[in-house]
Design a protein that fits this description.
This protein has 223 residues and is mainly α. The protein is built from 4 helices and no strands. Helix 1 runs antiparallel to helix 2 and helix 2 runs antiparallel to helix 3. The protein is elongated, with a radius of gyration of 50 Å. The N and C termini lie far apart (140 Å).
């Protein structure tokens, strides 16, 4: 079983397990996504390694083509002056051609594998993204459903529902506000009377002081 087959089997088996088991579906889905991401990460590493191999093969092909040209030029230059060495150059060129043929075949084979692997990775990543989006959607729907359930339960309580609690709370606040206002009005009345009495006492004290001054003046005049 190759890597992509195992990834597909993992996705399918995990999805079936999540449907059939009455457990924490969010945790099960999260575990499945982690497993798939890890498998895809390993596949991505292999794919990048294959891509580097392709680059090495292409580089070797260019090197072989360059050496073939070099051995061809050398053979031409030595053809008249040194036939033996010219033949050796042609032998080296033939070796390079055989190497070039092998590299070319390997390149074609690896390009097919790389293209197939890239396509499968693209498909798997798209499927993983779809699973992630579906998990997020399910989590949102579950949160809303739970919140709605709690709110409905609270609203449907006959005696201790939220609305009843608010009403009793408002009544208590209103009673406290009325009582506070009564005390404030009562305090302001007492304060007003106190001010009037204090003012009267102040005037009486001044009058008494004035009377004393008059008496002193009269006594002084008689002397």
């Amino acid at each position: 079983m190759n890597l992509f087959t195992r990834i597909t089997a993992t996705i399918g088996a995990t999805a079936e397990t999540a449907v059939s088991r009455f457990e924490n579906h969010d945790a099960i889905a999260q575990s499945a996504l982690v497993e798939v991401r890890q498998a895809l990460a390993k596949a991505g590493i292999r794919h990048r390694g294959l891509a580097r191999t392709l680059e090495d093969i292409r580089s070797s092909i260019k090197d072989c083509e360059k050496r073939i040209e070099q051995w061809t030029t050398r053979a031409q230059q030595l053809a008249r002056s040194d036939e033996s060495r010219a033949l050796q150059c042609l032998e080296q060129r033939q070796i390079c051609r055989e190497q070039l043929d092998n590299y070319t075949k390997n390149l074609s084979k690896h390009e097919v594998i790389e293209a197939r692997m890239a396509e499968k990775l693209k498909h798997m990543n798209a499927r993983l993204q779809g699973m992630t989006n579906q998990r997020n959607e399910m989590r949102s729907r579950e949160s809303i459903a739970k919140a709605t359930k709690v709110m409905d339960r609270v609203d449907n309580q006959s005696n201790d529902g939220v609305e009843a609690i608010f009403e009793r709370w408002e009544l208590n606040i209103s009673d406290a506000e009325v009582l506070n206002q009564f005390h404030q009005d009562d305090d302001s009345g007492v304060s007003s009377i106190q001010q009037e009495m204090d003012e009267q006492d102040r005037k009486d004290a001044l009058k008494s002081e004035l009377t004393d001054l008059l008496e002193v003046n009269q006594e002084t005049s008689h002397e």
